[in-house]
Amino acid sequence: MPPKTPKRKPGSDIRKWCAPTPPRSSTPPGGAAASQKPESFSFRGKEESTGGPVGGHSHNFKVQFDPDGQQKFNIHCDRPQTVLDAIKSLEASTKKLKDDDNNLIIQLSSKDQQVIVATHFPCSCIDMDEIVIVYQQKHQVEEAGVQWKPPVLPKDEYSVFYIDTKGGLNTASKKLFRNSKIKDFRSVCVYAKRGMTVEEAVRRDGRFIAELPDFTLTNVQDKNLVEERSQTVDGLHGKQLKLCLPKNTTKRWRSAEVKVAIALAEQQGVSVYPRESTNTNAEPNLEEIYEILRRQFPDLREWMEKVFTAKYYQTEMQKKENFGKIQKSFSEVYRLKKLFGLAQSVCKIVVEGVCTGSGFVLVDNFIMTAAHLFSRHVTEQTLDANIKVCAYFHYDQLDREADYVYFTAENKLVEWNRDLDYAVLELRPEGQRCKRRSKKSTNVPPGLLERFGPIPPSGEVCLFGHPNGEVKQMDPTWIIEKENRGKAVDEHLPWHMRTMFNLLSLRYHLSVKGIENILKDGSQADQQVTYNTFMYHGSSGSPVFDGLGRLCGLHTSGFTYGFTGENHVMECGQSLLTIFQDLVGKLRTSGKDQLLDRIKEESKKNSDLENIFSRDDQEPMDQS
User: pTM for the whole thing?
Assistant: First the structure.
């Protein structure tokens, strides 16, 4: 719950400890110069003595490093400092925390599990015996390279308020935070010294994007009550607010996005600047750019005229009807029973200190997952000495009834292929139960090798995995047919965003990522199964089942676009028959006959796999 409103005490002039607001950078979000950080506030305070309680400051709070664990560490805070500095006073923090402080999310109060604070949040604003939980993220959460070291003041000197992570007016398609994981929580807790403006408080927080345009705050209780960014924070203490953007936000960013269209045109050897103009450093005129593109790309204009038809609405309605059929298909009890039985062999992969993913049992104690989970931590086929990999089975719920089993993996990959993005690992036979008195078997679940099958040309598929490292989830969806992948790209943008510029921008971003390789005539078109799914980060390595319960793909990647990278066009799975053929060839070359014989024996139950073995026996694979 939000802290009670304290009695206000007069504070010193903000100008004594906070530098003036620097000019904001006009660099586009995620653009070529986005790495050039705008100037930031400079805070300088004298170092406090650590020899005992300072100024009567003394209170306790607790920290939990493992969100899923039970162990908590007590912190006796005897001087004004940030919450992160207080946490780092523990010896345990040297083992629990990585060096990058900017990749941390700190949750306030285990009772709420909805509010997060910045690493520079004043410890004086943390209630006695409060619990904070630390989450380590792969990507940046707070602005890097900024040392937030204002003098930490008594609690009464601050105004603390809460901003909903979902955002308010005109924020539906906008990125507000540096790290998308922030939206997993209800609100961010923002603090500021009384007398500061709302804009200063939000800008210096560090978790919002640096290129955040002009904004206002509205009261959750009264959406018509607006707080302007130029007002002080004094009246916001304890309030729940939403961040709102002006209607012309897209226009403000479009001058940056038009550079994408210019780059696309220049790739084709076409100049989009007027012939009489030689100043290419001048700010481009948007309408002039659009007109030049219309004239110089007649084929694009013809293509757009075909796209902008009344059939679009019918197409969208057809998609909804198809989805309804898929839901019906996967609601048939016998199909679900079969799928849930096979899903027992799906596991959560934890590469400790690096990332999480998903995987499944191939055969015996061997599991398959995505190779890119380890790509930066493998020398030849051996994992770095400090990398530990665990596989969690039956990880289906996160409460007192949770009863899962986990295994550690050998530090050497059995086989892997970066291009096909698969890896095979061997699990050590000694499984561990999360409950000592559990009756759950510690044996590895059955392998799914015998379920391998070809990619269907169309129809339904279903994924099982652990997105974001969460409990096991399933997503029934449908295949985007090979001949319709290009159309799926063209139709991805909502109708109201279907301008020539947006379509140009979309195609440019996706071409950079190599989407042509999986389109109808692409070099990898037949090796991929494509679909739309919510299974994003943490789902790599998930098995993709078809409507008959056959395992046809290994979920490995997806195509995104936009400066934020949060807009998903389609996701992809590698053909498991292609992977199987490559794996058999590698096992033969490396002389791993025992595993090869075991896989050959298991493949006798599957005609598709047996045909691959027969083909390779007659004509060995070229491993060059």
Answer: 0.51
* Averaged pLDDT, 90-119: 82
Identify each DSSP E strand in 171-281 by its residue range.
187-193, 216-219, 226-228, 240-244
Determine the Cα–Cα distance for residues 119 and 137; give it in Å rounded to an integer. 13
Mean pLDDT of 18-30: 33
Closest C-alpha to 289, from 273, 276, 309, 305 = 273
Q: What are phi and psi of 328, to 5 degrees?
A: -65, -40
Q: How far is CA 478 from the centre of its chain?
A: 23
Beta carbons of 483 and 396 less than 8 angstroms apart: no
Give the pLDDT mean for 312-322.
Answer: 44
Half-sphere exposure of 95 (CA within 13 A, CB side): 4
Please tell me what DSSP assigns to residue 454.
P
- Candidates 27, 28, 23, 16; CA nearest to 40 is 23
| Cβ–Cβ < 8 Å for 364, 427 | no
pLDDT at 162 over 70: yes
Q: Look at residue 100 and give its three-state secondary structure.
A: coil
Q: Which alpha helices (DSSP H) does 452-521 contain, by range?
A: 485-490, 500-512
Q: For residues 581 and 610, is the Cβ–Cβ distance under 8 A?
A: no
The domain limits of the chain are 14-247, 252-296, 309-590
Tokens matching residue 20: 């003036």
349 within 8 A of 339, measured Cβ to Cβ: no
Nearest residue to 122 via CA among 72, 190, 70: 190
CA dihedral 113, 118, 123, 129 (to 10 degrees): 10
Q: What average pLDDT score do residues 482-508 get?
A: 66
Take residue 288 and report the two structure tokens written for it: 């002039």
What pLDDT, on the 0 to 100 scale, is given for residue 486?
81
Task: Give dist(CA 56, CA 557) in Å, integer.
Answer: 54
Residue 90: pLDDT over 50 = yes
Decide which of 118 and 492 is more confident: 118
**Phi and psi at residue 558, to the nearest 5°:** -160, 165
Please state which of the ranges 103-117, 340-354, 538-552 shows the lowest mean pLDDT.
103-117
| Conformational region of residue 264, where left means phi above 0, alpha means psi within -120 to 50, and beta covers everything else | alpha
The answer regarding whether domain 309-590 maps to CATH 3.90.226.10 reads no
For 56, other C-beta atoms within 10 Å of its C-beta total: 6
Is there a contact between 97 and 85 (Cβ–Cβ < 8 Å)? no
More confident site: 498 or 1: 498
Q: Which of 237, 85, 78, 229 is nearest to 157 (CA)?
A: 237
Paired strand residues for 378: 383
pLDDT recorded at residue 41 = 30
The residue type found at 298 is: P
CA distances to 79, 82, 88, 179, 332 from 57, rounded to whole Å, are: 5, 13, 18, 33, 63
Cα 550 versus chain centre, distance: 28
